[in-house]
Predict the 3D structure of the following.
Amino acid sequence: MTLYGLPTCSLCAAALKAFAAADIAVTFRDIRADPLTAEEWAPLIHEFGSTLIDRKSPAYRSLSAFLRESDTDAQLLANPVLMARPVITDGTRFTLGWDAPQQAAWGL
């Protein structure tokens, strides 16, 4: 399993802690330190569409008007921290966020 997020994100930390407590191995991918390529973004964008962008974040509010009007892939390639977090996948299933439905989807 892979969790995409930021080390400073409280939801990412909570998800990692829950997986560790359940003895489920998860690889953490820091999207700021190790940005995803266009090919890596593609399945996430296919799964979540524009909801993959956190439009409430300071990073989004600081985007130029041009980028704000751009497609999701252009926004994420320009500034990966725009991604809503965490994104978790086992290679076949994807979840976005860390609320009760996402926890239940992973059996936690």
User: Anything to note?
Assistant: The helical segments are 10-21, 38-48, 58-61, 65-68, 72-78, 100-105. The CA atoms of residues 1 and 90 lie 4 Å apart.
